[in-house]
Amino acid sequence: MIREDFLPLVDEFLDLYPGRPVRANAGGMGINHCFGLFAVLRSRSPQLVVESGVWKGQSTWIIEQAVPAASIVCIDPRPDLREYSSKSAEYRTEDFAGIDWSQYPTSDAVCFFDDHQNEYSRLMELRWWGFRSAIFEDNFPVGEGDCYSLRHALAGVGHTEIQMSRAYRPTGRRRVVRRVEESVLRRYLWRQAMLRDPNIVDAAALRRNLALYLETPALALNPTNNWGGEWTGAYAIATKPIFADLTDSPRLAAILADLDAAGARRELEYGYMAFVELSETTAR
């Protein structure tokens, strides 16, 4: 799968997106990641989609539009936050790692992770149960984020604090508590999944086990990245957006024009969402 595979699906997606059930999806996905999810699923047409991290339910609706015939398993510990629920989905509150997947068609499935968990560990869990394909929504760039992302692992930088993004770090008394939490995690570094020292081993393991790593293209980008800086260096995009700017797509511009400035910016946020496929066998 390459960027060009996404192009034929743009018009269909823009037709359906105005009908989304959650108009104000702050804290959840905007149009760029919704498009990536829709396009991957429509292209792959899996028998099963596992969604880990439901939030308000917008992504569940996207899954239904992309693959109406697929079975859906939705995982989230806070079902009370849902605004949209699917009548055909199976809802669970356990963690992905705590579910027996042996009765599910894992070989013809796509897992969608928007749960802020260690993505490197998730890939190990996938292979254990026979899954081969996954989408990681929060693929944080180097220096940002609250979980160990594939970008972190591939760059060899580890994930040395629970929250890497300065704007989201705790302050005051909570900051002291966080330091204590991190000191305990470092004491048991190899027995926990939140912190990871810089290393080159994880990147080597990914190269050994991944048949495909693709950062899904955004429809269009905000002038600055999600953290207020330029799209350069560690924040550079790997896959060119579909549209250089909104003048290239009056339909996209019309969707955003129906929102206030903050809402329009949230829609175009982009977190380097990645689609990956595990190799059938581990490379030697």
Task: Explain what you see.
The protein is α/β, with parallel strands linked by helices and 284 residues long. It has one domain: Rossmann fold (3-Layer(aba) Sandwich). It has nine helices and seven strands. Strands 3-2-1-4-5-7-6 form a seven-stranded mixed sheet, with helices on both faces. β1, α3 and β2 form a beta-alpha-beta unit. The longest helix is centred in the middle third of the chain and has 16 residues. It is globular and about 55 Å long.
In a nutshell, what does this entry contain?
The protein is α/β, with parallel strands linked by helices.
What are the defining features of this structure?
globular, Rossmann fold, 284 residues, single chain, 7-stranded mixed sheet, alpha/beta, 12% strand
- Total beta strand runs: 7
What ranges have pLDDT less than 50 throughout 5 or more consecutive residues?
Answer: none
Helix content: 25-40%
Shape: globular
CATH architecture label: 3-Layer(aba) Sandwich
CATH topology: Rossmann fold
Q: Approximately how much beta-strand content do the residues carry?
A: 5-15%
Taking the alpha carbons of the first and last residues, their distance comes to 24 Å
Strand order, largest beta sheet:
3-2-1-4-5-7-6
Structural class: alpha/beta
Total individual domains: 1
The biggest beta sheet reads: 7 strands, mixed
Number of helices, where a helix is a run of at least 4 consecutive DSSP H or I residues:
9
